[in-house]
Amino acid sequence: MSQPQHPQAHEPGTASAGLVCRSRHDDQVIPGLRLPSPVVELEAFRAAGVRLWVKRDDLMHPEVPGNKWRKLKYNLAAAREQGVKQLLTFGGAYSNHLRAVAAAGHLCGFETIGVVRGDEHLPLNDSLAFAVERGMRLTYLDRTTYRRKTGLRPGQQAVGFSALKGGSFLAEDVARLQRATGEPTGNWRIETEFHFGGFAKRIAAPWTSVGYALP
């Protein structure tokens, strides 16, 4: 009887140290970027007869790891294509997003500005200190003003995708939050039919149909 095939752990080499920012459809290369991210077996489970493999996106880059790189790469590519020299973004005082944007800007040659929710507090915490070390200029907005900046312009929509199976109750949650800060509008919504079975579930057919793949 043949044995089932298991994925092999791999340690891909470090990407070229040269900076390459290509089209938004390619993975941009920054110094130290590891693609694909390593797949590692957790040895502690083998004694119980279980082989468990983890895709370590946290090891993709020491300063722009995992989901941060996967989100930012499209914005960075678009900025490069449009000749933009400066990036501005928003986040909380302990925001990993601000850290990642500061690091990516430093590595890709962009000036960066971080708009921080709340008042300035000195000395800076580790997250904001790191952002400043990577060249980010910080500015601050009080929480009331910060909430107002999240409004949509005419013609824009905010669409979220729920990972919960049976998440139809979220529509009322969206309306309730809108009522608490203003008037409910029709341009904010949660799509609830793309949960693929719920948290930690996977159905083969939908993945095939959307052509989803991670590097």
Automatic annotation (TrEMBL):
<protein>
    <submittedName>
        <fullName>Pyridoxal-phosphate dependent enzyme</fullName>
    </submittedName>
</protein>
<comment type="similarity">
    <text>Belongs to the ACC deaminase/D-cysteine desulfhydrase family.</text>
</comment>
<dbReference type="GO" id="GO:1901605">
    <property type="term" value="P:alpha-amino acid metabolic process"/>
</dbReference>
<dbReference type="InterPro" id="IPR036052">
    <property type="entry name" value="TrpB-like_PALP_sf"/>
</dbReference>
<dbReference type="InterPro" id="IPR027278">
    <property type="entry name" value="ACCD_DCysDesulf"/>
</dbReference>
<dbReference type="GO" id="GO:0019148">
    <property type="term" value="F:D-cysteine desulfhydrase activity"/>
</dbReference>
<keyword id="KW-0663">Pyridoxal phosphate</keyword>
